[in-house]
Specification:
Strand order of the largest sheet: 1-2
Shape: globular
Strand content: 5-15%
Largest sheet: 2 strands, parallel
Order of helices and strands: HEHEHHHEEH
Number of strands: 4
Distance between the termini: 17 Å
Helix content: 25-40%
Radius of gyration: 15 Å
Structural class: alpha+beta
Length: 131
């Protein structure tokens, strides 16, 4: 989502990320990823549980799709940084409205999985997610 922050903001939305490590890991991730939006820390995984995020396994991590995505990230110079205390936690992307509705919810199926930006933008524009 970092690469689409301006498009997201142009629709009147803000971005925030929630990490699984501690404050030190969050600072490393912020620097590594060059993000300019709030980065919160959830060491107890409370928000991950609420979002329905799952924990991957070493087997999930070693899948060809994940290894290819990791190689692309390293080649582009955009690694994750230092691993936190929950290195196998999978991510999720949600659009939350001020009224509390959730017009878009995506839970990653593996480490290389990311929410389709077009669907996130459609949800922000008032469309409904297919996810």
């Amino acid at each position: 989502m970092r690469d689409h922050a301006e498009a997201i903001r142009s629709l009147g939305a803000d971005l925030a990320a929630i990490g699984t490590g501690d404050v030190s890991h969050a600072a490393d991730f912020r620097d590594n990823q060059a993000i300019d939006f709030p980065l919160l820390v959830d060491e107890d995984l409370t928000s991950y549980g609420a979002a329905g995020a799952q924990q991957g396994t070493l087997r999930t991590f070693l899948r060809a799709r994940q290894l290819l995505a990791g190689a692309r990230a390293v080649a582009a110079g955009t690694g994750q940084g230092k691993p936190g205390q929950h290195p196998f936690m999978l991510g999720a992307t949600h659009v939350l409205t001020p009224s509390g509705s959730v017009p878009f919810a995506w839970v990653n199926a593996d480490f290389a999985d990311n929410a389709p930006v077009t669907e996130v933008l459609a949800a922000l524009e008032g469309g409904q997610s297919a996810a």
